[in-house]
Amino acid sequence: MRFSLKKRLIQKGFLVLAPAVLFLLAIPMHSQSGSRREQGEKESGNAKLKVFVSIIPQAYFVERVVGNRVDVQVLVQPGHSPATYEPTPKQMARLSEADVFFRISVPFENVLIPMIESTK
């Protein structure tokens, strides 16, 4: 019984994230910064989208939908609580360079959005 609840939650989350991830794949990638290698990869179509998610289950969904076309990074690492999470300066720097950030409406995300927008 516990397995079926977990499976239903995973399927429900998948249905929410899948359309968003598929939409991202339809958008052509354009970047004005990066190394020559990154520029070459993007021009040849081999570059991976830099995707940030808040929690590990989101990363699971994104990786299952998109496969190896994205580089998924998780903000809240195992053993930490989203309720008390604060990003490190290094995470904020990486997040400001991300192509996509998937939100799930946990409280710390509301603080992140203005911070991200101020760095761009």
Description of the molecule:
With 120 residues, this protein is mainly alpha-helical. The chain has a single domain, classed as 3-Layer(aba) Sandwich (Rossmann fold). Helices cover 55% and strands 11% of the residues. It contains five helices and three strands; from the N terminus they run ααβαβαβα. A three-stranded parallel β-sheet has the order 2-1-3, covered by helices on one side. The longest helix has 25 residues, at 2-26.
- The CATH homologous superfamily corresponds to Nitrogenase molybdenum iron protein domain
Q: Output the structural class.
A: mainly alpha
Determine Rg (CA atoms, Å).
16 Å
Which strand-content bin applies to the residues? 5-15%
> Helix share of residues?
55-70%
CATH level 3 topology: Rossmann fold
Set out the fold topology.
Blueprint lengths: L1 H25 L9 H9 L4 E5 L2 H11 L3 E5 L14 H8 L3 E3 L4 H13 L1
Parallel strand pairs: 1-2, 1-3
Short structural summary:
55% of the residues lie in helices and 11% in strands. With 120 residues, it is mainly α. The protein has a three-stranded parallel β-sheet with strand order 2-1-3, with helices on one face.
Core attributes:
single chain; 120 residues; mainly alpha; Rossmann fold; three-stranded parallel beta sheet; 5 helices; 55% helix; 11% strand; globular
